[in-house]
UniProtKB/TrEMBL annotation:
Protein's name in the database: Uncharacterized protein
InterPro entries (UniProt xref): Flagellin
GO CC aspect terms: bacterial-type flagellum
Origin organism lineage: Bacteria, Pseudomonadati, Pseudomonadota, Alphaproteobacteria, Hyphomicrobiales
Organism per entry: Rhodobium orientis
One function term, GO molecular function aspect: structural molecule activity
Length: 495
């Protein structure tokens, strides 16, 4: 009989334990709002829940990447916008016809150029949390040297000022005639390049309406041309020498037959062909010397800037192979004794490919940049040339030299065919930024949907849980009462 009483209590205790476990589980659901602590507790929905959470984690990783890229692209766009504005400001200020010098021998436009150049160096050294944005793949390297180092050099490394000075000597030559030799024999004046090299004037042609003169067009390497007077030309007739300049631009030097001693680039027809030859040679030498001091000198400065700053695609600074510089015949690699202004990564691949980020299953964007890209380089060249040049109001040719220099700086800062301008770089990165923004919007929407689906699987209806708990509580109380009655029964009660 005792055994029968025990047999009644044992399953009741087990049932109480089961009910208590269910009640505790519901209480936990009520406090956490979750259906289960483990995926196993989700039953048949566990596979779907795992897949949804995995996808959500992937999107979260992409969103983290997007957040970083978004910040970098915004900073880059700000820098690019300002660099573009700098180019416009200097271009507008650099009027070739405005020539008022300050005590340093520079115009107001040049002062603006120097300030702008310093600002541009800072913009190209922009970083985001220690990551430099215009340094190619070397994101931990500050890409652009200090302005003082770039212009003045340091130690044994020559700066731009020295490189430009050496280039000017090479372009002018030892007699300041732009590396041209002018000679005469009888009634023939010969104009010849002084060697096969990249410096000075390069003769391209002679155009003349002179009567009693025979023209031999420049030919050969180095080029040589001549003018032979067979008799005396008439007043008002002209002859023009055409030449190419070091920076790829061209110039024309026109001489006119005139008996007016004040006529610019004029030469008098003498009594004989021999007299005319002497007059023409003297006028030609003067005209070429003036052109060398003005247009050629400006072109030399621009080309020196190209030699120094054009280091993209793995290039190195170039400088005149000398001394002596005024008779030099070649350029040389200046990487060992010349400041390299850009010290970031300098590969031959596309600059955009130097930084990338995956922002979706199938979308990887590229947003790298190098400070020595053509668009940046052209602005820096123009500003640097304007910055280092000085002029003297007492020197007659300096006004024209400034005009030629300002004109060239303006041209370089204007849109040119085939040149990857700053605005082009900005458009490329803006297009990338648009794709990043759209991907972020997609991920935000998808993430919201995934969160809703996961909540539907994992979450519980709190009202329903409360009702179940109340029901279980009632059953538990009844079971406890029954169990208590059984535990109070004696053998006598049972009999």
């Amino acid at each position: 009989m005792v055994s029968s009483l025990y047999d009644l209590q044992t399953p009741m205790v087990a049932r109480l334990t089961e009910l208590r476990g269910q009640y505790d589980g519901l209480a936990k659901q009520l406090s956490t709002g979750k259906a289960a602590d483990t995926y196993g507790g989700l039953g048949n929905s566990r596979g779907l829940d795992i897949a949804l959470r995995t996808r959500s984690a992937e999107i979260k990783a992409w969103q983290t990447s997007i957040t970083n890229v978004d910040l970098r692209l915004k900073l880059m766009d700000t820098s690019l916008s300002r660099i573009a504005d700098i180019g416009d400001e200097v271009k507008n200020a650099a009027d070739p016809n405005v020539y008022t010098l300050n005590t340093k021998g520079q115009t107001n436009a040049q002062s603006i150029a120097k300030t702008s150049l310093a600002e541009m160096v800072g913009l190209l050294n922009t970083d985001a949390a220690g990551r430099y944005l215009f340094s190619g793949k070397d994101v931990d390297v500050k890409p652009v040297e200090s302005l003082d180092k770039i212009l003045d050099g340091t130690g044994t490394l020559a700066g731009f000022k020295q490189v430009a000075s050496e280039r000017l000597q090479a372009d002018l030559g030892d007699d300041d005639l732009g590396r041209l030799d002018i000679s005469s024999a009888g009634t023939t004046v010969t104009l010849a390049e002084d060697g096969d090299h990249p410096f000075g004037f390069k003769l391209t042609g002679i155009v003349s309406n002179l009567s009693n003169a025979t023209i031999t067009q420049p030919s050969g390497t180095p080029a040589t041309g001549s003018v032979e007077f067979t008799d005396v030309p008439a007043n008002g007739e002209t002859i023009t020498v055409h030449a190419e300049l070091p920076d790829g631009t061209t110039t024309s030097i026109e001489l006119i037959v005139s008996d007016d001693p004040d006529q610019e680039n004029g030469f008098a027809a003498g009594a004989t062909a021999a007299d005319t030859t002497a007059n023409f040679q003297a006028a030609l030498e003067d005209a070429i010397a003036e052109e060398a001091a003005t247009t050629l000198s400006a072109a030399s400065s621009m080309q020196a800037a190209a030699d120094f700053f054009d280091t993209s695609n793995g290039g190195t600074p170039q400088r005149v192979d000398g001394p002596p510089f005024d008779t030099a015949t070649a350029l040389r690699d200046g990487s060992t004794d010349t400041v390299t202004w850009y010290v970031g990564e300098n590969g031959t691949d596309d600059a955009r490919s130097t930084a990338s980020a995956r922002i979706d299953d199938t979308l990887t964007i590229e947003y790298g940049s190098r400070a020595n890209e053509e668009g940046f380089q052209q602005v820096i060249q123009s500003l640097a040339v304007m910055t280092i040049s000085t002029f003297d109001s007492a020197v007659d040719t300096d006004r024209d030299r400034y005009g030629a220099l300002a004109s060239r700086a303006n041209t370089m800062l204007n849109e040119q065919p085939g040149v990857n301008r700053v605005e082009t770089i900005q458009v490329e990165l803006s297009t990338t930024h648009y794709a990043v923004t759209k991907a972020s919007q997609r991920h935000t929407a998808t993430s919201g949907t995934l969160t809703t689906l996961v909540e539907e699987i994992e979450a519980v209806d709190l009202d329903e849980v409360a009702v179940k708990m109340l029901t279980l509580k009632t059953r538990l109380e009844a079971s406890y009462q029954a169990s208590a009655l059984l535990s109070q029964m004696s053998l006598g009660d049972y009999i």
